[in-house]
Amino acid sequence: MQNNTREITIIQAINEAICEEMQRDEKVILIGEDVANAQGVFKVTDGVLNKFGPERILDTPISEAGITGVGVGMAMTGLRPIVEIMFCDFLTLVMDALVNQAAKMHYMSGGNYQVPLVVRTLMGAGKRAAAQHSQSLHAWVAHIPGLKVMLPSTPYDAKGMLKTAIRDNNPVIFFEDKMNYQIKGLVPEPEDDYTIPFGKADLKREGDDITLIATSSMVLVALEAASELGEEGVSAEVIDLRSLTPIDEDMLVESAMKTSRCIVIDEGYQSFGVTAEVASVINEKAFYHLDSPVQRMGAMDVPVPFSPILEDQTIPNVEGIVRVTKQLLDN
Question: I want to staple 260 with a disulfide (CB 3.0 to 4.6 A). Which of 80, 84, 216, 291 is the partner?
């Protein structure tokens, strides 16, 4: 990280990335529901309309399929649109545009068309928003060849990864966890431009006894669990996956080989999800170095409850990670 830094939130980091890229490239356009006058549902686009005007910051009707379809068309004709889908639950409405159009257009056109589209969307439970506004569906789009999927967990990563996504010539789905928005961290000054490449996980904490691989808000949960385990003499390594596609297999496998035990932690539904894919990679490439089977901790396979007490039980937590770690170490 550069020397000139200041502490900002993830919301501020994303806002800065959007503004800097719009300033750098006049082809960057922002469209979505309430992104202009209302400045976004969580005020992520605060001030952007005043800086760049209504020709580049476009409020849209409430039609996720329409918004994304327009974004695909913009990208195919030379613009670099950022499409905001308020909650990833509504990716259900945009799958044709993403899966059948954006992801395949470069291939089906023989390389004649590119789709430099960024879809920003919110994931995560914990905000008491009930079953239709609290899911984490990143595994869905990671399943599709042609789509890149990113999940930042810190302000530094959020800014650098979003700038990378906007500059990329392929469609990128950028997941922002609503529970992380007010997290603060050090980020370089605006004049210090930086990007973070796709497919590079981040070693958040070194350890020797067990590897905790986590995504998005679960990275902070894993770090807290690692600190608690450290007080009991357990050295836990924490890896932030950062991007699902492409995935950094090398770092995951090397860490699992070193510690010989591994837990994969993700807020998406556990069945058929990210935890299964990561565990499979480690089992295939580090099997003979493991002292215990790779353990998975994902969200319960139930609709996210509205009740706070029940909702908190559906996603991985510090207590659960500590408990599973101790069980693995006892085997």
Answer: 291
pTM for the full predicted model: 0.95
**188 close to 149: Cβ distance less than 8 angstroms:** no
Q: Which residue in this structure is represented by tokens 């909650």?
A: 87
Name residues of the chain where pLDDT drops below 70. Answer: 1-3
Per residue in 186-245, pLDDT (tens digit) is 999 998 999 999 999 999 999 999 999 999 999 999 999 999 999 999 999 999 999 999
Radius of gyration of the CA atoms of the chain, in A: 20
How does DSSP classify residue 293? Answer: P
The alpha helices in the chain, defined as continuous H runs, are 10-24, 48-52, 64-76, 95, 105-108, 138-142, 155-167, 217-230, 249-259, 274-286, 308-313, 318-330
Question: Would you state the pLDDT for residue 3?
Answer: 67
Cβ-contact 157, 202 below 8 angstroms: yes
CATH topology of domain 202-330: Rossmann fold (3.40.50)
The span from the first CA to the last CA of the chain, in angstroms, equals 40
Annotated catalytic sites, by residue? 64, 133
CA distance 23 to 21: 5
Of 80, 85, 102, whose CA–CA distance to 29 is shortest?
80
**Cα(320)–Cα(314) distance, integer angstroms:** 11
Whole-number Cα distances in Å, 215 to 120, 275, 298 = 17, 10, 10
Domain definitions of the chain by residue range: 8-188, 202-330
